[in-house]
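Entry 12.
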Amino acid sequence: MSVKYSLALLMIPSLIMAAPLRVAVLDGLDETAGRPDASKYVETPADSFTKKAYYLLAAQLTTDPDMSVIDRRDLLGQVQKSEKDGPAGSASVLRAVQMLNADIMIKPVLLVFSTSKEMIDINKQTAENIKLQMKISIQALSPVDGSIVAMAEGGAINNLRQTDSVKKTIGDAEATQMMEDAMKIAVPELLQKIKANQLAVAQKPVKKLTITTDADPALVEIDGLLVGSTPLNDYEVYEGDHAIAVSRPGYRALSKKINITKNVAIQVPMLKTDLSADDIKELVSKAKVNIYSGIEPALIIKETE
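Predicted 3D structure (tokens):
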């Protein structure tokens, strides 16, 4: 089942919008495949968007008192640490964002940087009206699983007149200004959607979650955030889908997605690593759970209402 997570799932309603959202701005993504049709009129590095989008976007986000942008150096440093412990790529970025306790990720994407032409005959001289068009998308992503929770688009246009005697291009500064203009359109809409999402989350019912194991204490993560250790008693979460992970050194880590609709108590059977067949048989007998080959042990869930 595809699971969609709302922002700030673990915050109780009274705290919604009480403090600025911690925002992790990701590097820009260029989806124009080198923009071959615009390169004739644009004298700027092909990676200009990916390098500058962060700074342009962060500058606009910090003008909103409800947003607090995580320092890029902290994010990159945490990504490097995450890559040492696991595979590189989007998984390490997601883990880094979680370790920095970000409430939301924001990713700028360059969708279009293209041209259109209009031929004009003036006094038997041909001129070209060149319209440079830029379109960007700014996506708000869940720090839990990277799913998109809000999106907005913006665009900018730069007109050039080309004649036999005058050939005009735009440089890096003008291209950067186009990016900034496009973001000024997209960012307010995105922030409005994010805040609307926050208010919708605040209206969700809150349920109490208790987690115990047969090997307390074990670390508990809910929706990618470390919330404490077992026994975890009456922890408040919003009603709906949640990802729960329980781990302890020397034991097999368990991760499950569950739909919480009532106050529940969850007992997590913990299996030691490198056990003999007799050890596993004894542990299963004591824990009274079913073990299926290749599948994690089932959680024992009891409603407490």
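Annotation: Residues 206-303 form a domain with the Immunoglobulin-like fold (CATH 2.60.40.1120). Confidence is low (pLDDT under 50) at residues 1-17, 289-294.
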